[in-house]
Amino acid sequence: MKSKSGKRIGIFGFGCVGQGLHDVLQENPHLDVARICVRDQEKLRTLPKHHFTYDAQELLQDESIDLYAELISDPKEALLIVRQALRAGKTIVSANKKMISENLTELVALQEEFGGTLLYEAAVCGSIPILRTLEAYYGNEPLLEVSGILNGSSNYILTKLDAEGISYNEALAQAQALGFAEADPTLDVGGYDTLHKISLIAAHAFGAVVKPEQVLRAGIQHISRKDVALAQALGGRIRLVATAKLNQNNKLELQVLPTLVFPDSELYHVEAEFNGVQLEARYAGDQFLKGRGAGSHPTGSAVWADVSAALAGYKYSYPKFRHNEEGELRPVPVEEDDELKIYVRSTMPEFLPQLPWRELTVFGEGKREIQLVGTIRRKDLLLHLSALKQTIAFIAQLPAHVSAEQVVAASCIALEEAA
Ligand code: HSE
User: Fold this and answer.
1) Which residues does the UniProt record annotate as the domain Aspartate/homoserine dehydrogenase NAD-binding (predicted)?
2) Is 43 tagged catalytic?
């Protein structure tokens, strides 16, 4: 049966986000859920069977449906659904950051060619309206930097390690049980999910199409109590921070790295599954947005906001994309020339690659472990990063003002407190 306004939505997926959307839609009497398409026929669901279909085409070819919400975790399946909907000139809302970030050029072209609409606020920072802010508010004003905590699961884990001292595996299990983590949590803790999100932010904030291999990326999966205690002894906390910023040569620099932050940074105060995004605009100056970055209802709320906006005719205008003569999106040059200060703890010291460090201080040396603080050119770190990661290393960026001497002294304090 149709509601008064006659709008009908077809939903793909009934996991954490699909369920969340269904819940929040109960507040909206003007929208009917046509059917929900799921894969697993045997799984116990919170709704009776007649709400579901197992055939995507049943929804995609239903002319009575006004728009779709694609909320499945498989990026390949999600791409097929979104492509077909856009080729039919339909409106679709998605939360699949991996699929969208890896296929953005095609998805923008499909909208231009067939007149359909794709919105994906829920794909980036859960309930924080970051894409709408970048599009609608900063569409014209040049941005200098957008950075922040973009993954709720890894922030939840880091918060628990810091505040409660529970084990990494226990904290990860909690993030999974609370519905924050991806089906494959490597995407969260390895920094891939954050990379997908900063790529989408870079597109809307700087008009940049980013190749993943251009981005310096490390995750939190090898963090230990020692690293957490060291950060605490320095008066800081470790957070997984993504950065997209223009350097002095007006070139874009991108990275996803565990980073030591101090109480004077907004990011220090972003806890549990919350995300936080810092914007630096040429004229508006600094701005900070904070909100729940993961979870069923916060993400469902972001999908709902997109659904409402799409029904009102809203589309992204991609104001910062630069087109080349062929009319295609082109990558913005990424530069890797500046220097970074890096902390490394590796449990396979014998396999550490010879990196071209500018400065290097080694400490905590034992048979099975080594810690070091060094400065290195971003370009060199990017070149050697995969070899470094093979040594089961935890890698974090230190602010330039933190000296190697301070880190060594703090590691002694941390050791004494642990004893
Ligand atoms: N796994 C994601 C996170 C879900 O933890 O942030 C929201 O994108």
Assistant:
1) 13-121
2) no
